[in-house]
Design goal:
By secondary structure, the chain is mostly helical. It is built from 4 helices and no strands.
Length: about 120
């Protein structure tokens, strides 16, 4: 008579087996260890590429801030240049008309009226 094969009942995987790491000793895991290693390597590559992308995003944001700062500096410098050009052109026109600039500023006169003087007149 032929020998009867004994079938072993597979032990159920429990939460504690996963926590302790006992599931790594199972035959199913050992058979597919190459695929699991490949999966692990791919996950590490994905995490590393995500890290590189986040670094690039930070760099781009920093460069955008610097660009905005340089744009505002350029606008300020251009406005100052236009103002200086206008002042020099105005100075030439004033000299052409033989007008002189004031050396002393004019005085402001303040006249106060008393309410009693206004009623008497």
């Amino acid at each position: 008579m032929a020998k009867r094969r004994q079938t072993y009942k597979k032990k159920q995987l429990t939460f504690m087996d996963i926590v302790k790491g006992n599931f790594l000793n199972r035959d199913e895991i050992k058979a597919h260890s190459k695929y699991l290693a490949l999966l692990f390597i791919l996950m590490m590559l994905m995490i590393y590429s995500n890290h590189l992308v986040s670094q690039k995003i930070r760099l781009v944001n920093q460069l955008k801030e610097q660009t905005e700062e340089y744009k505002s500096r350029n606008a300020y410098a251009q406005s100052r240049l236009i103002k200086v050009k206008m002042e020099s052109q105005l100075g030439r026109e004033v000299i052409g008309d033989s007008l002189m600039t004031l050396e002393s500023h004019p005085h402001k006169l303040l006249i106060k009226l008393d309410s009693t003087d206004a009623k008497a007149k």
